Amino acid sequence: MQLADIILAIHFLFVLFVVGSLPLIWIGAWLHLKFVRSLVFRLTHLAAILFVVGESLIGIICPLTRWEYELRGIEAERSFIQYWLHRMLYYDFPEGVLTASYVVFALLVVITFKFVPPVIPRKFKFKR
Per-residue pLDDT for 104 more than 70? Predict the structure, then answer.
């Protein structure tokens, strides 16, 4: 296995974590699963989508995409998501559409904090 393939697999797992965690949180809340209220899990998920939104808003290609393309000798012209959406759907989405999608998704993650709040450990709770 090439290093580029390992980076691709890590990138896929990152995307799966970002996208898959939101429905997992909703389903887990419905099933009363405790792990979906883990503060570490929820903050990690929020940080991950905010990173994606941030890099998209400032117009940079994800470092994982760049590293993979450099290792394969390909010019990094489009983002990871654009590349794979094109491969799956044969359609190129403008970067602005993807950025808007990331922002909406991030807002859903933030809203989920309201409806499925994480449990804050006692050591982090403020005493009055």
Answer: yes
